[in-house]
Amino acid sequence: MGMVRESQFHVLAVDDSLFDRKMIERLLQKSSCQVTTVDSGSKALEFLGLRESNDPNALETHQQEVEINLIITDYCMPGMTGYDLLKKVKESAAFRSIPVVIMSSENVPARISRCLEEGAEEFFLKPVKLADLTKLKPHMMKTKLKKEGEKPAEEENTILKPEESAVIEILPLHQELELEQQEPMLSSNKRKAMEEVISAGRSRPKYNDITTSV
Amino acid sequence: MNTVVAQLQRQFQDYLVSLYQQGFLDNQFTELRKLQDEGTPDFVAEVVSLFFDDCSKLINSMSRSLERPENVDFKQVDSGVHQLKGSSSSVGARRVKNVCISFKECCDVQNREGCLRCLQQVDYEYKMLKTKLQDLFNLEQQIVQAGGAIPQVNIN
Prior knowledge:
heterodimer, A: alpha/beta, five-stranded parallel sheet, 9 helices, 5 strands, B: mainly alpha, 6 helices, 76% helix
C-alpha cells in the first residue's frame, strides 16, 4: 500500500482546445496528479513513444522514459479522434495496459458504449468536475501495482472471490498473456467487472491457481 | 482597517450571489472557483480571460460565415457554436450557454436569420458577463490589497 504513495500518478491529457487543456490540467493537478497535456492524438502517441507503423521494436520502447498511469482524452478532435487514439493504445502491446478515459461534451449513448467496448475505463461528460476525477484513482492504482509486480498487499478490504478475479491487472506477465486471449469475452461487461474487482480489494495469497472464466 | 475588509468581503459576496441569482453564472462557476487556491490565485481570471478571447474569435469567424445569404457555411457556424457551448458550459457562463443552445437549433435547420439573431445575442451576453466578472475581480483585488481573504461563497 505504501508503494503507491511514493510517486504521483502521471496523467497524459489530450484535447485540441487550449481552454479545455487548461481546465483538465488544473483539475488533475488539484487531484494531486502530475499532468502532461498535448493537443492531438498523434502527439499523444509520440509522447508515449509509440510509433504509428507496426514497429517490431515497439516492445522495446515499453515505458522507457515516461511512465503514464492514465490517458484522458477528448472525443471530438480533428484528425485522430479520442476513439482512434483509444484503439491505437489498446492495440499496442506496450501500452494497452494504460487506462484510457474519454471526455465529451455530447451525451451520445452509442458513442459511450462504443468507447467502453473498445476498452475505455470511463466516459466523462464535459464539463468534467473534481468529483469525476476521484473515479480515476482505482484505475491508476492498477497500473502502479502491476509495475511493482505482484504484491499480496494486506489491505483493509475483503476477500476476493475466485469468480470475481477477472483480474487482468496484477498477475505476473506470463499469466497476463494467457488472460489477454480471454479478454474479448469481457467486452461490455469489462467495466462492470473491473468495478467489482476494485471494490473487492486485492488481497490474494496466490495467483497461479485462479483461472478466469466469465 | 478590519471594517474595510469586512465591508469589501460583504460586497464581494453579495455581488457574486447576485450574479448567480440573475442567471449570469451557474454551478460550474462554483466548480471553477474550487480549482483556485493559494498556489494558483489567478486561475479563475485566466480561464475566464481565455473564454472571452475564444468568444471574440469565434463570434468573428461565425459572423464571416453568415455574412452572405447565398453562401453560408453552416458547418463552420455549427463548429463555432459547439465550441462556444462547450467552453461557456465549462466556465459556468449560463446565459451565454443558453443562447448557444438556441443558436445550435437555428444552425441545425439552416436558419440564417435566426443564427444572426443568436450571434448578436451571444455577443451581447459575453460582453455583459465580461464586465460583471471584471467588477468581481476588482473587488477581489481590493480585498487582497486590504489584507483580507476572498470569502468562500456558498450558492444554493
